UniProtKB/TrEMBL annotation:
Transmembrane regions: 53-71, 77-98, 119-139, 145-161, 182-205, 211-231, 263-287, 293-314, 326-343, 349-366, 387-407, 413-435
Location relative to the cell: Cell membrane
SUPFAM superfamilies for this protein: MFS general substrate transporter (SSF103473)
Domain Major facilitator superfamily (MFS) profile: 53-438
Protein name according to UniProt: MFS transporter
Tagged with keyword NAD: no
PROSITE patterns (UniProt xref): MFS
This protein's record includes keyword Hydrolase: no
Gene Ontology cellular-component terms listed: plasma membrane
Domain of life: Bacteria
Molecular-function GO term, any one: transmembrane transporter activity
Length: 462
């Protein structure tokens, strides 16, 4: 099933190869996307923000992300309070992400066929209605666990359409020139919101309850709709919608499997998603059962992860080269950090490792996202990104309940060790496979202070 990958060459001109003639036709709709590999000055760290449309989008996205994190934290803690079960929290995560696992490719096909801006306006309007319903139920005291389950499932259905369109829409905002930087800025915005949102959610949960966090998210979704309406349509890099035809989903899958710079990040994203992306479920178990720090401590732990992730997102904007091997390395480091967290002897050391975990998680996520987008052309990118999102988000539908059950019925430390150990082992395995296919070797030179470890090509024997 695995195609022969390129080794670790820097991605600068993605090769337009395909598994079929139809994929070739789709990939021929645009030219290869250039990647800026020179060292950018610090003043250009967020250079994509000089684009008017993207600047407006980033501001609205930041507000929405803060409110979304508030709702996520409040929702998980509310379910834990109502049910007293970490497994129930995992079920909530599963219901919210299961639609992406089952319907993700269909959402990508819709993103390729229809205007992305209109899809986002529709999705954010529906998300506002769902958040408002959750707020009313919580504020009136009528909320029950099954209410949260139903709304989480409906929100997951909205996400099926929203996420592929949102990923591809970034290119329509900035064009190919600033695409990599815009992806990193988006990640920075998401993690900055993830730093503020959990902290605000912790304050609201202890002060006035979960209902106001849901209300804030409803207002934020409305502000996102307003932001989308304010964009200058004449400055968008609008791509030609793909015509409807048979086999569109199969075409996207063949294209993804034919390109190693899509296939391997996709595979690693699967391991990270199933085992390591349901970290809030495990943090709820540690906050409640291990450290006994309550809702405020739960919000703090999530904020610490987001702090490290923010640093990782900023670091990703400074990344000069985008390599397949660096994506695999970051995934392995994230898994290793989770293993170390499982062994942490105190809340202090656990918190420190959570910051490092967030850093490596974001270095992996931004790197894999950039590599997949750069390696796919606009005519088929919606379907390619939907497959990536299906794995990244849908995998949490499996991992959430599984890790929640282990944390509740076995031990939270064991659950966290599994969460980090499996992705770390997968990263080592993939690294060995890539090294063997690319004839690479690790060279240790302690005399070279700048690069004591270096990956080099093995010279074949005469």
């Amino acid at each position: 099933m695995a195609p022969p990958p390129p080794t670790s060459a820097t991605v600068s001109q993605p090769v337009i190869d395909s598994a079929s003639a139809s994929a070739t036709a789709a990939s021929a709709q645009t030219q290869p996307i250039a990647v800026v590999s020179e060292h950018l000055p610090w003043r250009h760290t967020f250079i994509s923000l000089k684009v008017h449309n993207f600047r407006i989008f980033a501001i609205g996205h930041f507000v929405a992300v803060v409110a979304l994190w508030m709702q996520r934290i409040a929702q998980d803690w509310l379910v834990l309070e109502l049910s007293g079960s970490v497994t129930a929290v995992g079920i909530t995560v599963a219901l919210q992400f299961m639609p992406s696992l089952l319907l993700g490719p269909w959402g990508g096909m819709m993103a390729d066929r229809f205007a992305k801006r209109r899809i986002l306006i529709l999705c954010q309007s529906l998300a506002a209605v769902l958040a408002a319903a959750l707020a009313v139920l919580a504020l009136t005291g009528a909320i029950e666990v099954w209410h949260v389950y139903v709304i989480a499932l409906l929100l997951g259905l909205v996400t099926v359409l929203d996420q592929p369109a949102r990923q591809v829409f970034v290119n329509e905002l900035v064009g190919p020139k600033y695409l990599r930087n815009a992806i990193s800025v988006n990640s920075t915005t998401f993690q900055l919101g993830g730093l503020i949102g959990p902290a605000l959610a912790g304050l609201l949960l202890t002060a006035v309850g979960a209902g106001w966090a849901f209300a804030a998210n409803a207002l934020a979704c409305c502000s996102t709709v307003a932001m989308l309406l304010l964009l200058r349509k004449d400055q968008l890099f609008v791509s030609t919608p793909a015509p409807k035809k048979k086999g569109m989903l199969r075409e996207g899958l063949q294209y993804a499997l034919s390109k190693p710079t899509i296939y391997w990040p996709w595979l690693m994203a699967g391991f990270i998603s199933v085992f390591a992306m349901s970290l809030p479920v495990l943090l709820a178990a540690f906050a409640d059962h291990v450290f006994d720090v309550g809702a405020g401590g739960y919000g703090l732990l999530n904020a610490l992860v987001a702090l490290g992730a923010l640093a990782g997102a900023v670091a990703s904007t400074r990344r000069r080269q985008l390599r397949l091997r660096s994506v695999v390395f970051c995934a392995g480091m994230y898994g290793l950090m989770l293993c170390l967290a499982a062994l942490a002897p105190s809340m202090l050391w656990f918190s420190v490792v959570m910051v490092l975990s967030g850093f490596w998680c974001l270095m992996f996520l931004t790197g894999s996202n950039q590599l997949v987008q750069i390696s796919s052309n606009m005519g088929i990118r919606g379907r390619v990104m939907s497959l990536y999102i299906m794995v990244l988000i849908g995998g949490q539908a499996i991992g959430g309940p599984m890790l929640g059950w282990i944390a509740e019925h076995v031990d939270p430390h064991v659950a966290l060790m599994v969460s980090g150990g499996v992705p770390a082992l997968a990263a080592v395995t993939v690294a060995v496979v890539l090294a063997r296919k690319g004839a690479l070797a690790l060279r240790v030179d302690l005399k070279d202070r700048r690069h004591p470890l270096r990956i080099v090509r093995r010279v074949a024997a005469a």
